[in-house]
Amino acid sequence: MKEIIEYYSRKDVQKHILSIAKNRELAVKFGEKGFGKRPDILQFENDILELVRSGATSFHFSEELWSDPLLLEAGMNKRQLDNLRGGWDLIIDVDSSNFLYSQYTTYLIIEALKFHNLNNFSLKFSGNKGFHLGISFKSFPKKVNDIDTNLLFPEGPRVIASYLKYIIKDHLAAYLLKGTTIDNLIKSSGINKEELVKNGVFNPFALVDIDTVLISNRHMFRAPYSVNEKSGLVSIPIDPKNILDFSRNDAIIDKVEAKLGYLDNFKEGEATHLITQAFDWNQKLPSQTSEKTEETKSYVHHEIDNVIPEELFPPCMKIGLSGLSDGKKRFLFILLNFLSNTGYGEKEVENLVFEWNKRNPEPLRESYIRGQLSWHTKQKQKLLPPNCDNQQYYVGLQICKPDGFCKLIKNPAHYTLRKYRLSQEQKKIKKKSK
Ligand code: SF4
Q1: Which pTM value belongs to this model?
Q2: Exposure string (b/e) for 291-328, b if CB count within 10 Å is 16 or more?
Q3: Predicted confidence (pLDDT) at residue 235 exceeds the cutoff of 70
């Protein structure tokens, strides 16, 4: 306990803990006695030391930002909570009994965030076997699909975490299976085969957990620079660039340097693409399986022998491909998903993308395009491009100029797939009539 009191007496540590306390509910853990009364708040640096002297061992804050956390009560309904909530930060909680698995999964999520043009976010060690990636509420748009973003809790964090899980799944599976077999993983992890292999497919999330279900109202996370009672280590912020070099030894109490902050790195609106795409994906969830079976799978796997020619592309794709002044990164994201659903292989995608980039008045950097292509190529599970009615994309980019055929479809990929099927049918009819 002496060590803990000494540690929390440090002014730099107190300053960092207090720095994210504003508008958050505080939960104080008193060792094995558990948590103190809720709701509570933290107002002054000195309160930290006072609480520690009375037995506090760690500090936890709400992900939600409240106008007045002290008005929270047990059993409040959704409307009451919505009225009090001014916002929420997204904390992605990665955990595994194998620390290296957590580390690599976190690395993949960081890459996925960058793929969505999100570069300003925070990371900290959980204090034991995992990491907490933090995206500030200020990075999100004010509204998503016309709903105030502060009301999107817990759905917003759940949808984004589920989406990120979906898009890193293949990458993570490949990493975990590198140089080993499922039987070896069963032996080393002690997890049974039914959990590790679902419907004949390896499930990496049996080995690494990314919390999606437990995100709920008044959900708390360990404060940065707070001690983890189980390990005795400190939940220290890390520069995301250094995730793969991080060692748990860096978090030993007397080695801690309280330099980096948490949730203080953000760029307003930078997470717009991520949240829009995650909700779009979520909305299409049944179609990712069933509608795709109807529209896409049958064409891609059975009928598309070659790439579908550009003349069968919808107006939005043709306009975008002629070159854009604004929204190039958003269009590239749409384009990659569009092409992977219309029979384009790796090389053809690369050629088409670099040709398109030459037509942009101010081309994107080659390294940026290569990064996007590399991530996209490794992804086996294909995403449909956003649906036509998603205002952030085609309408926002001013490339949606519907023709008569657009009435029949909801997604640009379906436009091309249907046109392709019609052209194939017409060819067959012509052949027969000869
Ligand atoms: S309706 Fe859809 S397919 Fe047609 S131009 Fe607009 S976004 Fe493209």
Answers
A1: 0.85
A2: bbeebbeebbeeebeeebeeebbbbbbebbbebbeebb
A3: yes
